[in-house]
C-alpha cells in the first residue's frame, strides 16, 4: 500500500493526539501489553518480526524508558505476557508464545521488571488481557491492581496496536463505564509506545489463507478505534524531573 494511500486514509480518519505530562499528582499506572520475544525479537517465533522493524523497536525503547521512570518512582506497573498452552490453539493465529519458551518471556531490555516490587506480571492465554486476568474463582487480577493502588489513569503501551492493545483498551473502557474499575477515570494510549506487525498486500497475495496487514495503516486504525471508544491518545509522554 502506497504512502499516498495511507496518508489519504489518515486524512479521512484523523486521530487527534495530545501530549501527556506526568507529575505524580494523578495516580497513574503503566500497562505494558505483550512486550515479549514472540512479538518483538527478530526471528523469535511465528509471529515475531523477520527483520529489524523500526516501529517495533521504538515501541520497545519507549516501553523501557517509561518502565524505568515508573519503577524509579515506585509507581504501579502491570505487564501482560502472552503465554499459551500448546494444546489450546488461538485461531486464526499459528502457535506462538508457548508457556515455558523464550517467546513468552519479556524482551531482554525489560527482563529486569521481574525483580521490581512495584510490578505485577500477568501471563495471559488470550488476546484480551482484561479477560486474561480472570482467575478461576471469578476475581480479576487487573481489577484488583487498579483498586488496590487507587489508580485514576492508566498509560498503555505495547503490541499489537490493533489487536491485543485495542482489545484490552476497549474492554477496560467498558468495565470503567460499568464502574467495575473505580476509581479509574482515564485510559491513555501512547501511540509511539505501541506497534503492530507488517504484512504488506503484495506479500499476502503470494501466500495461502493470509490476510494483508500493512503496518502503518493498521497501527493508525487501532488508535482511531481506541479513541472512538473513549481512550485518550497521546503522541508524547514527558515527566516532571523535579519529582524523583
UniProtKB/TrEMBL annotation:
Protein name per Swiss-Prot or TrEMBL: Isochorismatase-like domain-containing protein
For this chain, the family text in UniProt reads:
Belongs to the isochorismatase family.
Name the Gene Ontology molecular function terms of this record.
Answer: nicotinamidase activity
Q: Which InterPro entries match?
A: Isochorismatase-like_dom, Isochorismatase-like_sf, NIC1
Q: Which Gene Ontology BP terms does the record give? A: pyridine nucleotide salvage
- State the species of origin: Prunus persica
Isochorismatase-like domain segment(s):
29-197
Top-level taxon of the source organism: Eukaryota
Pfam families annotated for this entry? Answer: Isochorismatase (PF00857)
Amino acid at each position: 500500500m502506497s504512502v499516498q494511500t495511507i496518508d489519504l486514509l489518515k486524512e479521512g480518519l484523523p486521530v487527534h493526539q495530545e501530549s501527556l505530562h506526568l507529575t505524580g499528582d494523578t495516580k497513574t499506572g503503566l500497562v505494558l501489553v505483550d512486550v515479549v520475544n514472540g512479538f518483538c525479537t527478530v526471528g523469535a517465533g511465528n509471529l515475531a518480526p523477520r527483520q529489524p522493524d523500526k516501529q517495533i523497536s521504538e515501541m520497545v525503547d519507549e516501553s523501557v524508558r517509561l518502565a524505568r521512570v515508573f519503577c524509579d518512582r515506585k509507581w504501579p506497573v502491570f505487564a501482560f505476557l502472552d503465554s499459551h498452552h500448546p494444546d489450546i490453539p488461538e485461531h486464526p493465529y499459528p502457535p506462538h508464545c508457548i508457556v515455558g519458551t523464550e517467546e513468552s518471556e519479556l524482551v531482554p531490555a525489560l527482563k529486569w521488571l521481574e525483580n521490581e516490587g512495584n510490578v505485577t506480571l500477568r501471563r495471559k492465554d488470550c488476546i484480551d488481557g482484561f479477560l486474561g486476568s480472570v482467575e478461576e474463582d471469578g476475581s480479576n487480577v487487573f481489577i484488583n491492581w487498579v483498586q488496590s493502588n487507587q489508580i485514576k489513569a492508566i498509560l498503555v503501551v505495547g503490541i499489537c496496536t490493533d489487536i491485543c492493545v485495542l482489545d484490552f483498551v476497549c474492554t477496560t473502557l467498558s468495565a470503567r463505564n460499568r464502574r467495575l474499575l473505580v476509581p479509574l477515570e482515564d485510559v491513555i494510549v501512547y501511540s509511539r509506545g505501541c506497534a503492530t506487525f507488517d504484512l504488506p498486500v503484495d506479500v499476502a497475495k503470494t501466500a495461502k489463507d493470509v490476510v494483508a496487514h500493512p503496518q502503518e495503516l493498521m497501527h493508525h486504525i487501532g488508535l482511531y478505534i481506541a479513541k472512538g471508544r473513549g481512550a485518550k491518545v497521546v503522541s508524547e509522554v514527558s515527566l516532571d524531573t523535579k519529582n524523583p
